[in-house]
Amino acid sequence: MIKVGDTLPAATLMEFSEVEGNGCSIGPNPVDVAKASAGKTIALFALPGAFTPTCSAKHVPSYVDNFSELKAAGVDEIWCVSVNDAFVMGAWARDQKTDGKVRMLGDGSADFAKATGLTLDLTARGMGVRSNRYSMLVKDGKVAALNVEAPGKFEVSDGATLLAQAKG
């Protein structure tokens, strides 16, 4: 399992863009994790799935609500990573009103989740291999803080907890 001090795994996530700009075409665009995190402070949080109850009602809103404070604490970008395709993440971004605040990044084949060692097997519930719920503060591609939730819990990976760590 990834730990504090480790470099983020080499992976490509996918991001759905609704408007063309900044080198991104409309539709799914690849995001090279190493390149996108280089020289930046990233508040990264991952969760089991888009449109799922806790993720939609609590997890994503906790980062949208703390956006200004996270930016003021030196966070350059906020990333939400989920084992969903870019189209689902794009629809969820619209639903959660994350535009300009949280980058909704799809890990469709769970490659990033597997590389971090933070997977959750929800096959028995018809969801396959997913990401565990966690958050991490990433500085220049390296994990500076890591908060992994116990199964079924939402206690340490919220936006307020990561904000306190970013201020720390």
Name its key features.
168 residues; alpha+beta; Glutaredoxin; seven-stranded mixed β-sheet; two-stranded antiparallel ribbon; 9 strands; 30% helix; 30% strand; globular; redox-active center; thioredoxin peroxidase activity; EC 1.11.1.27; antioxidant
Question: Could you walk me through the main structural features you see in this protein, from its secondary elements to its overall organization?
Answer:
The structure is a single chain. With 168 residues, this protein is an alpha+beta fold. The protein has one domain (12-167): Glutaredoxin, CATH 3.40.30. Helices cover 30% and strands 30% of the residues. The chain contains 6 helices and 9 strands, in the order ββαβααβαβαββββα. The protein has helices at 33-37, 53-65, 67-72, 86-96, 111-116, 159-167; strands spanning 12-17, 27-32, 41-47, 77-82, 102-106, 119-122, 128-131, 134-139, 142-148. Strands 2-1-5-4-3-8-9 form a 7-stranded mixed β-sheet. Strands 6-7 form a two-stranded antiparallel sheet. The protein is globular.
